Predict the 3D structure of the following.
Amino acid sequence: MKHLTASAVLVAAVLTGGSVAAEPQAEVLHWWTSGGEAKSVALLQEEFAGRGGTWIDMPVAGGGGDAAMTALRARVLARNPPTAVQLKGPAIQEWYEEGALADISGVAEEQHWADVLPESIAAHMKCDGHWCAAPVNVHRVDFIWANAAILEQNGIKMPTTWEEFNAAAEKLKAAGVTPLAHGGQAWQDATVFETVVLGIGGSAFYRKALVDLDPETLTSDTMKAVFDEMRILRGFVDSNFSGRDWNLATAMVMNGEAAFQIMGDWAKGEFLAAGKKPGKDFLCAPTPGQGFLYNVDSFAIFNVEGEDKKQGQNLLAELIVGPSFQETFNLNKGSIPVRTDVSLDKFDMCAHLSAGDMAAAAKSGSLLPSYAHGMALRGAQAGAITDVVTAHFNSDMTSEDAVKMLAEAIANSM
Ligand code: BGC
């Protein structure tokens, strides 16, 4: 059947005296399967099809992308990589070192990416000086979301310190409300943990602990205080939290089954997809503390054979960084555009908060890569930390034992 179709095309081309032009094709591996995520990625599929491309979707469900990375490894081992893969930060470099990534400098230069992307983010997209990935957005991880009506009914304001958060949560608990919607999956534990590291330790502490992996910082009293707070937070989640997907936790806040969720602003994509309004139905604020934890989604472009696929890669890269897609995608996804020249006029208060805080954090040196979302560390080190965070959260391990385990895990992962 395939052969027949191909030869039919060939015959038609010969008869019309034309040549067989390759049509852009892309197989795209991603983990955008929740309501808000699926809506956002569908926009890219539409733009791609609108330009004559054929999109082969390879969604691998699982927040944070762990399952997607397992699927990617299998495909590369089978010497059949997808054309483009949702990948982030140091993982891009890791795949480049495996010899798996293509050079998309042609598109990047033609589209002047260097003039419209922040330098620090552009650096993540380059492999030995050439472009190998296309950035989509800037997600902020250190966000806290709340059900506006629940807070009002209970006389609670968005907390600005962890003490305030704990006091608000105790009050809610006494009133019979689940204070914290959480999904007990390792990456979600890690997401909460890094916001507590930033909040309790501050930005210099975060950098020393989760970027530089400084052993003294990892075992410090401040890190013990971070684990103490994690233990307190554990007391604020409901008994069914284990294994729950992040978007179901967001739905609990949305439906009034819980008051707060600590989650990156992809949670806003869920609220918006359900027709909820920021400031009215739900509230957003930075998690207690100063700083900004960034998480940049990007697509790494893999080495593939075939003119159609190569054209597909170029088209995909062009669309992803293009100004119109940057606006519509990010309006749906909950993030802000990565391009510096896209107007935020159509964006809501949470996006403005994010953009303002990001600019301020860049000036004060507190713009920090998220470890939990693969921006700060290589896989082995990030995984070592997350294992300890999850083991602590799901047991009665003391904070003293947790910091010891943390330092050991890091030492063993090097
Ligand atoms: C990604 C987001 C995604 C979230 C939940 C994060 O690591 O950066 O784009 O929405 O995981 O799946």
Q: What stands out?
A: The radius of gyration is 22 Å.
